[in-house]
Design a protein that fits this description.
alpha+beta, Jelly Rolls, 2 domains, seven-stranded antiparallel β-sheet, three-stranded antiparallel β-sheet, 7 helices, 21% helix, 16% strand, globular, binds 2-oxoglutaric acid
């Protein structure tokens, strides 16, 4: 992506609360991804669609795309953490009118964690987290594509804006695109009115100093981490773990006791 295209996407994400990056995955990668989701969908109630990076090589690609990483880090910092990676399949007849903003259970949009002094306002001054929806199917007006409410990331309150449903726009996009949005932006899957499932993978990212949806440093399999390369320990939050030894015994780079204190390592 050249500088001009990058600037355009960054401005759109800043002003509208979302942008769509085309051509991140090839048609072949999308097909492999769809097949993996289709295979795992029957087990969705038992985690079949969670922790996808541990389950098939194709999903390791999703945090190894330089243009996408550049945009994510532009908004949530150079040491942003991958918070989750899970499949979203909208079957024929499913979806529709379920607008929400993310982070309401484990993130900064958790109304139950608001302090009285917040006066029911959420944090909108900075992007604290972004989410990425990879379109493994083409997203059309009728097949359950995600709809998003432009500008709603700046809406100051936890409650849904009154005009959200009237202003929501369906994100139509070719397969292989990714919708990148501030998690404050109200969004949701539309109804799938076709006979085919709609396949997507979501990969939310958070600031290094916030909690993720999973304890990723413990979740990621060693070989997956190895293949993530030199960025792996930052992306999976190994370096973000708070020490459970005294500081002189702690190796921040690898997120555990130093070599000479491995006897203190927790399973
Ligand atoms: O799959 C989609 O289109 C949206 C899913 C979603 O909003 C979510 O999982 O938070």
């Amino acid at each position: 992506m050249n500088q001009e295209a990058f600037d355009t996407h960054a401005l759109e994400l800043k002003l509208k609360g979302f942008t769509i990056l085309p051509d991140l995955l090839s048609p072949k990668e999308c097909k492999v991804g769809r097949e993996e989701l289709e295979k795992r969908h029957p087990e969705r109630e038992h985690g079949g669609l969670e922790w996808l990076f541990n389950k098939a090589r194709i999903f390791e690609r999703l945090y190894q795309l330089p243009d996408l990483l550049r945009l994510i880090r532009h908004f949530v910092g150079p040491d942003a953490l991958l918070s989750a990676e899970y499949g979203s399949v909208v079957m024929p007849g499913e979806g529709g009118r379920g607008l929400h903003s993310d982070g309401g259970i484990t993130g900064h949009n958790r109304a139950a964690s608001a302090a009285p002094m917040d006066e029911e306002r959420r944090v909108t001054s900075h992007a604290l987290a972004v989410n990425v929806i990879f379109c493994l199917s083409e997203f059309t007006e009728t097949n359950g594509a995600t709809e998003l409410v432009p500008g709603s990331h700046k809406y100051p309150y936890f409650d849904i804006p009154e005009t959200a449903y009237a202003n929501a726009r369906t994100a139509t996009a070719p397969e292989g695109s990714a919708i990148v949005f501030d998690i404050n932006t109200w969004h949701g899957a539309t109804k799938n009115q076709t006979a085919e499932p709609r396949y997507a993978v979501l990969s939310p990212w958070r600031r290094r100093w916030t909690k993720c949806e999973y304890e990723m440093a413990r979740v990621v399999k060693p070989d997956v981490l190895e293949r993530a390369g030199e960025d792996g320990p930052a992306i999976f939050g190994l370096q973000a773990q708070p020490p459970y030894t005294e500081l002189w015994q702690w190796d921040r780079e690898n997120g555990g006791p130093k070599q000479e204190f491995t006897h203190l390592k927790r399973p």
